[in-house]
């Protein structure tokens, strides 16, 4: 066995900042527990808009220096969350930010949106077979809100999970590994509505309120299978988001992107289990992404006696 922690969580995201916004509290929670938390970011986010005027020169239509700058922001954010394993898919700059849907950057050479899904997935298969995560977190098929890089991240993560488990696929990339549980990032509609009501009533917010429809991954409550109460790490999440200073302005418990529209900063984060069995009682939500899984490999392999009970 390797010296990897018994619990291993892999998150796949499109751009630096997506991980902190969506999963910052979850990542900090698991990192603090000693879980191996690994982040794979698919692009450097080169096409992002820049909030601080002093850094506006980095934008893609000026010096085009935003990618390396955002890699440094990501480093700082991961330090805030206590996450030490973060990588760019295929290495930094292998895939470029594709910009919003419909722009010409979608089809430029190297754009993540124009990448071959199986080729990009093979790069992630190598990571999956190395780390052997029990849990994968990524976006839904719409990427949460239709951004091409988010849709592509979903496709690549989903395909990689499938190929990593296939014993016939690329034996040079390591032994096959099946990820036990896959989750999509979600926001329950009732929680979103409640927080947006509070946001609109807060006279101290320096921005106009966004609409709930602007938030990625909002679904009816009954689709939520899992909630991670990251409130003890809310300040860590806020600090990680602040580290992405070109992209996010934070005024707890709210934040705004470059559109200057305020959104809630979620310190309880929500998920939909789309593969694997829920570890919660019927009708209840999981409070742990690893719920229902054996505590570690040794437990899973412990022999059973002839009555089917686990011998200890
Ligand atoms: Zn993004």
From TrEMBL:
EC number(s) in its UniProt entry?
3.5.1.103
For this UniProt record, give its keywords in alphabetical order, as a comma-separated list.
Hydrolase, Metal-binding, Zinc
**InterPro entries given in the database record:** GlcNAc_PI_deacetylase-related, LmbE-like_dom_sf, Mycothiol_biosynthesis_MshB
Give the cofactors, semicolon-separated: Zn(2+)
Name the Gene Ontology molecular function terms of this record: N-acetylglucosaminylinositol deacetylase activity; zinc ion binding
Asked if Metal-binding is a keyword of the record, the answer is yes
Which residues of the sequence carry a binding annotation for Zn(2+)? Answer: 15, 18, 150
> Which biological process terms from the Gene Ontology are attached to this UniProt entry?
mycothiol biosynthetic process
Q: Which reaction does it catalyse?
A: 1D-myo-inositol 2-acetamido-2-deoxy-alpha-D-glucopyranoside + H2O = 1D-myo-inositol 2-amino-2-deoxy-alpha-D-glucopyranoside + acetate
Q: How is the cofactor bound?
A: Binds 1 zinc ion per subunit.
Q: What class of enzyme is it?
A: hydrolase
Q: Which domain of life is it from?
A: Bacteria
The answer to whether the entry has keyword Zinc is yes
HAMAP family referenced in this protein's UniProt entry, alphabetically: MshB
Described purpose of this protein according to its UniProt entry: Catalyzes the deacetylation of 1D-myo-inositol 2-acetamido-2-deoxy-alpha-D-glucopyranoside (GlcNAc-Ins) in the mycothiol biosynthesis pathway.
Q: Which NCBIfam families match?
A: mycothiol_MshB
* Family that this chain belongs to: Belongs to the MshB deacetylase family.
Name by which UniProt lists this protein: 1D-myo-inositol 2-acetamido-2-deoxy-alpha-D-glucopyranoside deacetylase
Q: Which gene encodes it?
A: mshB
């Amino acid at each position: 066995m390797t010296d990897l922690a018994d619990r291993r969580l892999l998150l796949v995201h499109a751009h630096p900042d997506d991980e902190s916004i969506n999963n910052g509290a979850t990542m900090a929670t698991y990192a603090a527990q000693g879980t191996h938390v690994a982040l794979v970011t698919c692009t450097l986010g080169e096409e992002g808009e820049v909030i601080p005027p002093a850094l506006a020169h980095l934008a893609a239509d000026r010096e085009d220096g935003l990618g390396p700058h955002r890699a440094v922001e990501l480093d700082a954010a991961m330090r805030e969350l206590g996450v030490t394993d973060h990588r760019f898919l295929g290495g930094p700059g292998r895939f470029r930010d594709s910009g919003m849907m419909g722009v010409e950057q979608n089809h430029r050479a190297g754009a993540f949106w124009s990448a071959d899904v199986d080729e990009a997935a093979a790069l992630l298969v190598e990571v999956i077979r190395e780390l052997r995560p029990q849990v994968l977190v990524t976006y839904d098929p719409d990427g949460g809100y239709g951004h091409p890089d988010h849709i592509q991240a979903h496709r690549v993560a989903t395909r990689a999970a499938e190929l990593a488990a296939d014993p016939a696929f690329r034996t040079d990339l390591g032994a096959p590994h099946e990820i036990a549980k896959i989750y999509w990032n979600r926001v329950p509609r009732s929680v979103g509505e409640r927080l947006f009501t509070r946001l609109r009533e807060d006279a101290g917010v320096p921005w106009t309120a966004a609409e709930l429809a602007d938030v990625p991954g909002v679904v009816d409550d009954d689709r939520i299978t899992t909630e991670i109460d990251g409130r003890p790490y809310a300040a860590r999440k806020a600090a990680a988001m602040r580290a992405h200073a070109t992209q996010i302005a934070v005024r707890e418990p709210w934040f705004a992107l470059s559109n200057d529209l305020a959104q809630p900063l979620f310190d309880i984060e929500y998920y939909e289990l789309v593969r694997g069995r829920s570890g919660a009682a019927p009708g209840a939500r999981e409070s742990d992404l690893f719920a229902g899984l054996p505590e570690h490999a040794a437990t899973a392999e412990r022999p059973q006696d002839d009555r089917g009970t686990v011998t200890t």
